[in-house]
Amino acid sequence: MIFLLSTTNWIFLGFWVALLIITVIIELDTANLTTIWFSLAAIVALVLAALDINYWIQILVFVVVGLILVYITRPLIKRTAGKEIVRTNADRVIGKVGIVTAVITPNEIGEVKVINEMWRAFNKEGLEFAIGEKVSIDGIEGIKLIVSKLDKDKKIEII
User: Fold this and answer.
1) Of 32, 64, 119, 147, which is least packed with CB atoms within 10 Å of its CB?
2) Element (H, E) at 153
3) What's the gap between Cα 154 and its chain centre?
4) How many alpha carbons lie under 13 Å from residue 60 in its C-beta half-sphere?
5) pLDDT of residue 158
6) Tens digits of residue pLDDT in 120-142
7) Backbone angles phi, psi at 154, to 5 degrees
8) Which domains does the chain possess?
9) How many CB atoms lie within 10 A of CB 82?
10) Contact of 155 with 97, CB cutoff 8 Å
11) Are residues 66 and 38 in contact, defined by beta-carbon separation less than 8 angstroms?
């Protein structure tokens, strides 16, 4: 039966397979659910294409199934996932003093040793820091430390 498909349905069969692959790749590349609903809708449309159903019905079913899945599951996932902040204890380095181990320039991310750990680091003010220079850890952005010149009046505590 699948070999007797019209040319249009063969095209749509390929289209749904390609869309399924693309949405799955996007889903695997992101941390939160973004395209899973459309991956499932593409599977439904793929089945319809294999059954030689009119392509307008395939498109309509894809859109409707995708929207229904988003409408039903998105609020449920948001409720169960919650907005709880997971503490990683990485913020323990904020306020500490680190030692530059790889040069930090306005155009290049460097490296800082703080609390016996190596961190990638940068400076938002466009300052340059040499190896061995002491810096103040002001914050964390992603997995990189935000550093600044060490305040001369600040009590130095290098751990």
Assistant:
1) 32
2) none
3) 37
4) 5
5) 53
6) 999 988 899 999 999 999 999 88
7) -75, 140
8) 2-81 (no CATH), 90-149 (2.40.50.140)
9) 7
10) no
11) yes
